[in-house]
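The instructor's notes for this session suggest beginning with a concrete chain rather than abstract definitions. Hand out the sequence below and ask the class to guess, before any prediction is shown, which regions might be ordered.
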Amino acid sequence: MANFSKSSVPRFSVDVYQNEYLPDGGREVNAIVTVTATGGGTVGTAVGASYTPGQGPSAGVAVMVDCSGSMDYPPTKMRNARDATAAAVDTLRDGTHFAVIGGTHVAKEVYPGGGRLAVADRATREQAKQALRRLSAGGGTAIGTWLRLADRLLSSADVTIRHGILLTDGRNEHESPEDLKAALDSCAGRFTCDARGVGTDWEVKEVTGIASALLGTADIVADPTGLAADFTQMMETAMGKEVADVALRLWTPVGTTIKFVKQVAPTVEELTDRRTEAGPRAGDYPTGSWGDESRDYHVCVEVPAAGLGQEMLAARVSLVVPQPDGDVQNLGAQGLIRAVWTDDMAASTSINPQVAHYTGQAELAQAIQQGLDLRKAGDMDGATAKLGRAVQLASASGNADTAKLLAKVVDVVDATTGTVRLKAKVEEADEMTLETRSTKTVRVKK
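After discussion, reveal the predicted structure:
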């Protein structure tokens, strides 16, 4: 856990967008909370962690490479995975702690070995790349074992940021879903992890589930030749992280309850069930690691009914970082969610544009996932209806990237009304890309 001096923390700000006006007896308050971190090059260091000035926060990265037998079909897949991992190693900042793990039905330390992390410099990067050349494919797939080894290695170093990169090309066939879930539960909150599926023989819900549980990103690399560029970008993003374990803290007054909390940009991520209690009427929702970036959260609060003309604080939003002694450090940014009861119908029935936009984006993600599930189940009418609604929502919100992906799965007759026809033949990579990226949102123009 990180310990920060005031001068070392990126500047965080919180902005709240809402319509605070409720009709007589109204109880539901919705708000979009925008959290922004600025101040590139700022540094957070863990208690006692070594840190070299000018090199950013201390970080540990574990790269988990699928080495199961299927990675040899075609052979270019394993070669591209080795090259991509080498490119990621080259992107490591000097002083970063790192390890490479080869994953099959067991997890093996490829570099440096000995249950520890190496420290990146010219020599260790070269040694790691030499070790990568010995990687070969053979064996099964048990991703939970990879994650548990990554956790052990990352926890062996006194670093601020702990991050994993996981590549798989197949289904997790050599351990039970319960074993994988247990591993994810064990690793959650200990490190973040980006997950990538290469080719088209892996299970989308497994890869996106790993990234979701560990607050990372998920994506498909359908063509293995794209791995090096993707790995480089992931590592560059990891190197830009400056603060770990930031939590969104919500305090509510007596009689008020949180109905849900979800991240809505840059992706939709449900956080409601991840709440940890933080004292009287307060709860913390994990957001993972931050660099210079901005994210949006949808908070829905149920307040006690009140009479016309009354107003109340529905919730107070702040940002905190857990400390090793069990205390927290408040990052100083705060936002207020309010409720005001009025008989002005125009005021109380108006939907805030940010709330409306992100409600649509969350529905878009859900419609895509439901539509693809119905298509796989053979319910073509249901799939057409759901994917048509998705096309309509993508068009209305200006989500051009998702609209393009949908157009590879359905023929769009009229985007405005959501009139579509399912394509008779869909490339597997196109369907998997749409499913994997279904939670990516476009930000509202404020």
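Then share the key points. The longest strand covers residues 328-341. Residues 143 and 172 are 6 Å apart (CA to CA).
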